[in-house]
Amino acid sequence: MRLFIALETPPALRQAAARAAELLKTAQADVKWTAPECMHFTLHFLGEVPAERAVAAAAALDAAEAMPAFPVELSGIGAFPDMANPRVIWLGAGKGAAEMAALSEAAGARLRELGFETDSRPFAAHLTIGRLKGPRGADRLVKMLSEFRTEAVSGMAGRVCLFESRLLPCGPQYGILRAAELLR
Fold it and tell me: What pLDDT, in 10s, does the model give residues 67-101?
């Protein structure tokens, strides 16, 4: 099973991210855009995990149930590895980024206790909106990214989920294996 732990994206942020992707599509770059229903803030990507270990991975969500819900606001646009050579296009989180980092750290500590490896890179609160597949239109996209301004949109983060990701020819399909509600 291909698993990851993520914060569900509040609907207002998902809609704003979809609008941003629509604007960026005018660059006509070779990008696979993320479907709005698949947008989320990844806290930990676990990769391939044997089915019998999924229950243990779900235990990492226990930390989320003790944390309060919090507002999240989109802030800025960027790309990995960098803006000059974009491969992944993302919208960042301003307000709420520190809370997401705390959630990531708490879940990561629990995952390590349970014998899972976690990413050693610093956590970056971001919402992936597209992935470049080739060089066509990349120069136009880079220009648009450098001039792009995100909407000031916020929403309440309320749920952390353990997702299973199935890679299909039409794109990834996500299923929730366990959800943990943040305190309200």
Answer: 999 999 999 999 999 998 999 999 999 999 999 99
**What Å distances lie between residue 18 and 1, 34, 79, 132, CA to CA?**
28, 8, 16, 16
> Two tokens at 144?
């648009």
| Cα–Cα distance for residue pair 118/180, rounded to 1 Å | 20
Buried b (16+ CB within 10 A) or exposed e, 120-139: eeebbbbbbbbbbeeeebbe
Stretches where the chain sits below pLDDT 50 are none
State the pLDDT at residue 33: 96
What domains appear along the chain, each with residue ranges and CATH number?
Answer: 2-181 (3.90.1140.10)
Q: How far is CA 91 from CA 43, 50, 139, 155, 169, in A?
A: 15, 32, 19, 14, 25
Q: What is the largest CA-CA distance in the chain?
A: 47
Residue 146 CB neighbour total at 10 angstroms = 10
Instruction: Tell me if 124 sits within 8 A of 106, measured CB to CB.
Output: no
| pTM greater than 0.85 | yes
The predicted structure's pLDDT at residue 172: 85
The amino acid that residue 112 corresponds to is: R
